[in-house]
Amino acid sequence: MADEMNYDVVIVGGGMVGASLAIALSATSLRIAVLEAVPFRSSSQPSYDDRAIALSFGTHRIFAGMGLWQALQAEITPIESIHISDRGRFGFTRLDSRDEGVAALGYVAISRAMGVVLAERLQQLPNVTLLCPAAVTGVVSGSDHAEVTVDYEGVMRCLHARLVVAADGASSQVREWFGIDTRRWDYGQTAVITNITPQRPHLNRAFERFTDSGPLALLPMSDNRCSVVYTVRSDHAEEVTALDDAAFLQSLQERFGSRLGEFLRVGARRAYPLQLVRAREHVRPRLALIGNAAHTLHPVAGQGFNLGLRDVAVLAEVLSDAAVAGRDIGALEVLQDYAKWRRRDHMKMIAFTDGLARIFANPLSPVRALRNAGMLAVDLLPPLKHVLTRHTMGLAGKLPRLARGLPLVRSVEPYSSAKTPSPSPSAPKGRRAPRGKGRKAAATGRVTDKS
Predict the structure, then answer these.
(1) Cβ contact 118:109 at 8 Å
(2) Residues 174, 12: contact at Cβ < 8 Å?
(3) φ and ψ at 224, to 5 degrees?
(4) Which residue, among 36, 39, 35, has the nearest Cα to 158 in the 3D structure?
(5) In which region does residue 293 sit, left (phi positive, over 0), alpha (psi from -120 to 50) or beta (all else)?
(6) How far is CA 104 from the centre of its chain?
(7) Structure letter (DSSP) for residue 416
(8) Is the peptide bond before 133 cis (omega within 30 degrees of 0)?
(9) Measuring CA to CA, how many Å separate 204 from each of 55, 82, 83?
(10) How far, in Å, CA of 275 to CA of 296, rounded?
(11) How far apart are CA 289 and CA 437, in angstroms?
């Protein structure tokens, strides 16, 4: 017979998005379990490989509100400006942090380094239980709780939870078990990911260059390296990845040009087929989808992880407020608050990234002329550029507390954009509900807000 364990929230998937949700919710008295199939720091852990991740300014504020930014600062490189161009055409746009009055438009982090920071924080939280490696074998939703069966350390366990959160990626098994359909579009493109060292200093500039095979992005990294996302047609992907270093650098140089001088060195390369995946429903009773389980985007403009982290910030606030109000955190009416809040941001970013991918892949001359004129218009019209920049920075629309740089628990000192805050010694930490009366209150969602 399976061992039984009771939690308020069970998060299936301990990648960057799932781990971030657990850390955000640790500021409440909710009891949380995180289930992850692949050991942390393993080379087979897809969320924590050597890829570089573009972090928007809004993501910076969310991590600051969670108290994580100081630990991440040693692992990140700021993006101070972005140069956007169309290969062989006249159109271009330049975005600069000075125009927005911020130190950086965004940042670049290595996902493996981020994984170390998140894993260390998870293991320090008294109200978070990490089960890893753990294989989830089924999820059943009931009227007042869900049951998650999991194989952990060779023992079948049954976890009871008021809410299950699917953070298990684009091929979400939890989403499949709940019978939630998806809309998919295969772009016929593959992203080849690597790092290169250019001859000239990158000066904390990022580049997005549209080519006839797809967008080519270079993101600044430490030691004057650049992370490269080289999009090629899928029928050419195997040929490109099989090139030796010199031939690959030559191919990349032809696509990018000479703005950074000669490309001198290249690292290991990996290829990822590109699809748009969108779940038709993001909530069911006892279930919420976040991150790639809800939406997987084309990597153009680097918005995928940032969109997922905004899911985290909104869901954490909705659950925290519901718990304080004595509401059932797994009830559909509560989860619909999350779904409604996120709908516009999801639709906007899907339309933005999908539109860019399609428009710049269109070879028709009239389309090329219009898109290049549009890029020049953005560059020459500051109000239009400001709107575009705010959206890419993750600062548009209704923002949750964490996305405004504020902690989930109101009694903690607010975040200032001028200085990354240190934890206040007098600020109360999220703590596990005590046994007895307090534990019962947490189990029924009646958490006292002491702000």
Answers:
(1) no
(2) yes
(3) 55, 30
(4) 35
(5) alpha
(6) 18
(7) B
(8) yes
(9) 14, 9, 11
(10) 7
(11) 31
CA distance 335 to 290: 12
Distance CA 355, CA 380 (A): 22
Three-state DSSP class for 64? helix
pLDDT at 52 exceeding the cut of 70? yes
Encoding tokens for residue 201?
Answer: 């200093």
Residues pairing with 257 in the sheet: none
User: Which DSSP string do the residues of 154-214 spell out, in sequence order?
Assistant: TEEEEEEEEEEEE-S-TT-HHHHHTT--EEEEEEEEEEEEEEEEESS--TTEEEEEEETTE
The band of 442, judged by pLDDT with boundaries at 50, 70 and 90, is very low
Contact 268, 244 (CB under 8 A): no
Q: Which two tokens stand for residue 293?
A: 């389980």
Q: Helix or strand or coil: residue 27?
A: coil
Angle, to 10 degrees, between the axis of helix 304-324 and the axis of helix 332-359?
170
| 288-318 pLDDT per residue, tens | 999 999 999 999 888 999 999 999 999 999 9
How far, in Å, are 91, 380, 397, 436 from residue 371 at the CA level? 8, 14, 25, 64
Helix, coil or strand: residue 294: coil
Its pTM stands at 0.86
Q: Residue 420: enclosing H or E segment and its boundaries?
A: none
State how far the alpha carbon of 344 is from the alpha carbons of 55, 341, 347, 352, in Å: 20, 7, 5, 12
- Plot region of 322 (φ>0 → left; ψ -120 to 50 → alpha; else → beta): alpha
Q: In what order do the strands lie in the sheet with 106-110?
A: 52-56, 106-110, 76-79
Rounded distance between C-alpha atoms, residue 306 and residue 75, angstroms: 17
Integer Cα distance of 432 and 439 in angstroms: 8
Q: How many CB atoms lie within 10 A of CB 275?
A: 16
